[in-house]
Every structure is written in C-alpha cells, then in structure tokens.
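Translate sequence into structure tokens.
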Amino acid sequence: MRSSLAAGVALVGAAVVVVTPLPVPSGTARAASTAYGLTAASTAITGASLSNVPVNLFNMVMSTPAWEVEAMGRLADAMIATGSWQVWGPTNVLGFDEQDPPKLAALIDMLVPIRPLSSALGDQLSWSMRANLPMNSGCAAAPSACPDPKAMLSSMFTVPAAELSRGYQFPAVTNPFTGQPTSWSGQYVKLDRGAASTSLRRYLTGPPVGVQTVSPADALDAAGRLAKSVKDAFNPFVQNSQWFDTKHTVFAPLFRALAPALCASCGTNPYDNEWLNSYSQKPAAVASLPATPAATKPVTAATQSAVPPTPRLAAAEPHQQARRADHRTTSGSAQRTRGH
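Result follows.
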C-alpha cells in the first residue's frame, strides 16, 4: 500500500501543472455513509435520457481538473491525519486502519479523475481491502509489536470478491493499539459488481448539472499540501521513528547519535514510543497510554466539489433483512475471518 500510494502521488503530481485556470468551486461534504450495502441499482434517477449524453460527456471532460484537484486535497488531508508512516501508533498500524479508506478513495479519484466512475471504484476497493488486509493484534507493527506474524498472514486475502458480492458479515475488528472497534466492525456489506458502470451511465444520461471548476490558487494549495504531507509521511528522522528503534535496524545507534543533526524536533531520547513500549501489555495498558492527538484522529468524512446526482453510496438494504437473507453466507464468513 505504501509503495502504491507513493507511485500514484508521483504520477498525478506531474499532471497538476496542466490544470486549467477556472473559477473557484463550491464545496460540499463527501458524506461517510453508515449504510454498508453498496447496491447502486437501488437509487432511481429522474429525467434520464440518451439525449443528455453529449452535454454530460462534455461536462465530465471539463470537470476532470476540478475533480483531480479536489481528490489531491482529500488525499493530503488523510495523509496529514495519519501522520508519519515511520511512527507506529493508532493511526499507523499494519493492516487497514481507520485512516486508510479515505486515503485509498482519494488516491483512486486522483488516478481516475472521472468522479462518477472513480467514486464507485474507490468504494469497492476500500471494502475489499478492509476485508482482506485486516489489522491483527498478533502483528500490529514491525518488528517491535509483531510477536506472531503468522496471525496476520493467515487472515490476509481470505474474502474473495464473489463473497463480498453475495454478502459478507465483518467479524469484530479492533485497533490493536487502542482496543477500540473500527467503524466497520461487525457490519454487513454487499457489493454490487456493476456499481461503477451503473454510476457512470446514470451520470451520462441524467440531467446535466454543469461543469465543476477550480481556481489556480486552489490547485496550487492542494498540490502544496499533498507534497508536504508526502514529505512528512516518509521523513525517516522524526521523534519515535522506527529508524531510531534498535529492533528495526542495526544502524539505530548511529541514527540516535546523529539525532541532534538529523532531527531538530526530536527530544533528548529520539525513541520513546509509549504505544510500542507497552504493547506487550495490551489491552490492560491501553488506559494508561497517551490519547491519540486530535490532529491524527481517524478521518470520518472529507470534502468534495459538488457532483452530479449519482451518489457515491446508494441506498442499502436494511441491515437485519440482508443478514437474514444471507445468513448462511455471512455466518460462514465470520467463522473464517474470526482471526482478525
């Protein structure tokens, strides 16, 4: 995931210089849905007509710079919320933690800046990664908090796409550093494989809503924030960086000795990560550990430019009804993924 994200940022960063100067966009909240059934066909659109396709196709092409810049801003916000990827803690855990879905969704929107298509693709992939790259208390951070690597490896990539399409019941999923459940812990999800094509078709045939625009100032701001967030994420010399951990590298003593020159913000002890020092005592020691800083709390929603009336998440089947309909599938899935 780290290497893929870096590659995506590099690819799109080069493209930002060609953003067309346009007026300032209006912003709306990119809602974080509490309904996890992703059946796109459940939302009807009025006024759909093939005669709308030419103008909507034009609007879509002209809106891609604004959608690109907006996605860059959301990725920057999610990266900032995560903090340094060199520091293990509640917002940087091996596996898919609360910070990862917004990062992945924003990255997909950047790589495929066609919002009606990329929104559905991002949701589908995010749910698949939640199921197939789960956090695990047996291996929360490498190597200091990974006493049982097999526990994580055995629970990875165990939920195929077909099972997510039939309906999947998540087991209890908790953050191994805090012991707190994730927002998808115990949730039922049913993915629609045709959600992306359905969303794009609805956009093209639906009533035109105009071109989304972005100003040069907003484009530069988003690019600057994203560049800084990537720099901060991969800077190896920050307080509690794994590169100062003697269990991580044999060069840690040298890095510690050079810490005054390498890390101006580091304290006298550049590595005093309480989350890792107390990890072996989890969950009993959770209450005594420092709270997650406000700036790095999980992202629950991000912002986006106003988009056409093709929803990112469509209306879901009622939770209980869906669970009864797919009881046999979900119960089997829960048993297989209990190791999460």
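Note: The chain has two domains: 2-13+32-140+154-235+313-336, 236-288.
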